[in-house]
Fold this sequence. Notes:
With 612 residues, this protein is α/β, with parallel strands linked by helices. The chain contains 21 helices and ten strands.
Amino acid sequence: MVKYxxxxxxxxxxxxxxxxxxxxxxxxxxxxxxxMLYNLATLLxxxxxxxxxxxxxxxxxxxxxxxxxxxYIAFYFFQFAFLExxxxxxxxxxxxxxxxxxxxxxxxxxxxDGILEKIGKGKIxxxxxxxxxxxxxxxxxxxxxxxxxxxxxxxxxxxxxNNIIAAVAALxxxxxxxxxxxxxxxxxxxxxxxxxxxxxxxxxxxxxxxxNLKQVKSLNIMPNLTKRLEKSRRSYDxxxxxxxxxxxxxxxxxxxxxYLGKIILYIFLAYLVLExxxxxxxxxxxxxxxxxxxxxxxxxxxxxLNLSHNDVRIGRIKHILNFTNETSEIEYGDVDNDYINGxxxxxxxxxxxxxxxxxxxxxxxxxxxxxxxxxxxPGAGKTTIINLLYRLSRVKSGxxxxxxxxxxNYTRKxxxxxxxxxxxxxxxxxxxIKDNLALxxxxxxxxxxxxxxxxxxxxxxxxxxxxxTIIDEENPxxxxxxxxxxxxxxxxxxxxxxxxxxxxxSNIDPASTADILNILNDLRDDHxxxxxxxxxxxxxxxxxxxVLDRGKVDAKGRNAEVFEKSALYRELxxxxxxxxxxxxxxxxxxxxxxxxxxNDSENTKTQNTKIS
Length: 612
């Protein structure tokens, strides 16, 4: 019963695949039918072989052989026609499963921005690239396995019609072989899953290194990283060695069961021929079919093993899709008024992260055609305000309003088209400048106007391929300052009324800082601008200032008034304080036994409502 239950589990994978990528039922049926017809067609050539031997042993006329030659040609024609049909369906299903499931993963990851805190980047990237490509293989392997079993049943029926004792012997040999190899497959799959687990951990470290190569080199931390890697590699080697112990048994020891049984069966069949209880052509036919039994059984078992591996892969896909942020998804409302003036109000806002109070009774207003600066020491809660405006979390109490309407009441379309901005670390995709901007607005005229407004268009025109130049972080063409301007241009393409800037001048040169100062001065004419900054010149340019101290508002109001009444603000304006804000308010990092993150940047929940 255990064996058959395990076999049923192999075919349960089809239901899991259908839940991941519904549709294409007809094509799946076609795949099974074409596979079955191909397998049955492979049973026909031995009939022609047996017929030719019958003609020769019975001393018939040579011309009779041509009938069987024609049968040979017909049998092989149908065999390869069914195979071509099978290949055609396989390719069609391959595109369907790969594209649908990969897109499903991408969308789920984008919606659950805390996923990197629980699932390593190595596992995510490997699953989205490699594991999804094996889904169609799992369907094909299920088809091969089922049709292979049907083929075996047909062969045993042919055996039984010729000699029941030979049929029973062949069946017993095959059942023993199936049982032993099936148990072997389960153990190989178990240790295969173990190797994938430690591969993920090794790739996690590699991804962290790639994002922090300068720190790795300058701080000489590679020796300590190597120690962490060695621990994962030892665990990987243990799993790999155990897997190959079972693989060795599978291919070097267990097959001896079949070959010993085959020798005994062939001796028995030869005895029947010598005793004139079986003709020579029947002997050849049964030997051919028993060889088919062996090869088909090996094929079915190999597909069972592959299905076990692919069950692990599908489990990895489901693990990612089953992940949801600890905080519930914030739903959008039904207010679709797109005529936004841009008055932002925080009204007695409180926000907690578990038992930690991040914002305490925060109130202020930001107005159109003004720059409102949020300032304070690191950890004061500045970036939390920006993240709340991006709807990354819901306030515990109090209200956040835009034009006297709760930000939770607007539709997704209205809200995302009116709130945009730029984070500390600007990001771009490895695609052309034009395509990066097209993620927000594909209109070339609008793209050029946005680039001109931020003063980067002339720089881009000088590039070898202009706006079609590929942005590649590994071979940077644009400076950090130019990338920041490009990010601002991309935010402008959203036509948002409210622009949020979180330490927008971090890690850029003084000239670019001065340029961005001028850009913000220009943008205030037709936007509500909220900035987080630690730089005195940006504080000085603000119309309004909100000074935060450990989550509370220390002072707020017009710039000159706040400077007059807040000692903390005067300290921030006049000191050498130059540490950019880091968003630790939304982040609780988990590290495994094989290493933690090198820095927080990869784990920070800083995802924009709009791409910027």
